[in-house]
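Assemble and predict.
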Amino acid sequence: MHMHFEVEGGNFSRAGYASSEIKKVLKKLNVNAQTIKRIVVSSYEAEVNIVAHARKGKISATIDNDKIVLQCNDEGPGIPDIEKAMQQGFSTASSEVREMGFGAGMGLPNIKNNADKLEINSEVGKGTNVKITIALSSETN
Amino acid sequence: MKSNGFHHALTFCKETCVGCSHCMKVCPTQAIRVHNGKAELMPNRCIDCGECYRVCPVDAIKVEQDDFDFIFNYKYRVALVPGVLLGQLSEEINPRQIYSVLMELGFTHVCEAETGAEILKHAMENYVSKNPDIRPLISAFCPAIVRLIQVKFPSLVNHIIPMKPPLDIAGLYYQELLKKQGVNEDEIGLFYITPCAAKIAAIKSPVGEVKSVINGVINMDFAFNKVLTTIKQSKSPSCFVPSDSYLSPQAILWSLTTGESSNMPGRSLAIDGINNVIEFLEELENEEVSNIDFLELRSCDESCAGGILTSTNRFFTAERLRNRAKSANRKPDKTEVGMEIRDFNDYLVDHLKIEKIEPRSMLKLDENIKGALEKMKKVNELMEILPYVDCGICGSPTCQSLAEDIVREEAEVSRCIFIQRILEQKGTFTQQESIDVMKEIWGEKKLDKDLK
Ligand code: SF4
Ligand code: SF4
Ligand code: SF4
């Protein structure tokens, strides 16, 4: 099962669309509620990161029997120091973005807390690729 | 369509139903299908919100009610009266007049259903401060909302505060009060005058409890008509008229929108109207909502003032209750009726918890992910050919729901009128076949008309 979304930079009114669609599918697949929550948090953070920092980007979700893989690729400024970006509280968001309640530096650390596996590749001036893997299990009740 | 133990207070009367599908189109959980010209309910999806009841043009949807004489099975018969009953009647009618009519009908005691709201308020405050990790916490007041969360937002069930509504607390209180006076528990019947079907369902099959303390229900429209007829015909009651009771302004306002949220510490929000609630819960589930401590969610517009069994304009009802709350804004006299509930405080606090609320997801296509993925693939393939018109002529509320019904083997793709035309063009479907399919959905009658 494969889903694909285009994400537009700077359009906060649509931020969350991809995560919402992914969530709908996961509910129909009877994925455990807590797992859905972790996936939705991760994809929402990744989506907001693209909206806040990049010109545009893509999110794709591939679901198979035991895992979901989210690929989030953007054309944006890139992350010069990934290790630093992974620290809680660090943010490169502009003050405008912060005022809207985004970019509090929670993005990547929050994804890391929720993902089973997180891989980040970034090239300054070009863009960032984030790959998030989360294992799936069925609702037990 | 198998039931999984949900009790529903709404029933669809096949004789009366004209198969207009209005109910199917407004159902917020897509729990209705049309088959053989009649609306049918998918019991595991219905949350008893009653949106269908509001729109049925021929009153084919009935709200179950206990036979009134059932109250006489008990020696002591307590009417638990919610504020919205009083709020529906003109301010010239004194609550005591209303109580006296109820006693004339056969009740031996009258207790306001919101008695005990204070006790609940303190318990909820406590729960909110003791559970800082779960935010926002959601009130369990409206049973339609509790069921909505169970079936459609299962990941949020642990946000619900596991506590009984004021009604049950009032019931427990009255039971204890009578027991203290030497009455046997099995002689006491507690009857709630309900503004909605959801409360009936919650009493008949409570969530998080084995059995409700409430013994039966009287529908509010019935009580309203009785009270008004008696008063209009100015029959003075021959029975004992109970004295006025004291209710705090908070208790009076509890069942209205902001009735709970305005009492809770921290940041809280009140949302009424089932579709507004669904929209908000979607966002909450997406983690787009933060820094809210408490949520008051109510299925009806203007909360219980807009319950499906109310009879007068919900805005006037709310206004009257607000006026009543204003005039109740005084320090109660310790001897007033309603004050003795404080003596039972500890007992009630001990008994207001309910068990964990379980998710009962209705959305899953299959129990296991592998099976569900295969089914979803089929749904997506069907969506490629279905027209996205959502006309409902197939008997399912949307193209997507038809596709899911097909995959669940409860419908065939030929139910779609667009598919029928396509198949006819290809010569694989005859006109007679498409008429047969339409008859199967909409009944013989709709297709058996004599056109001149
Ligand atoms: S009560 Fe609500 S959920 Fe149930 S069938 Fe009617 S509209 Fe649908
Ligand atoms: S609204 Fe529903 S129950 Fe009422 S007549 Fe129409 S199809 Fe039948
Ligand atoms: S808001 Fe009140 S009347 Fe409406 S469904 Fe909920 S409890 Fe019943």
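The mean pLDDT of chain B is 91.
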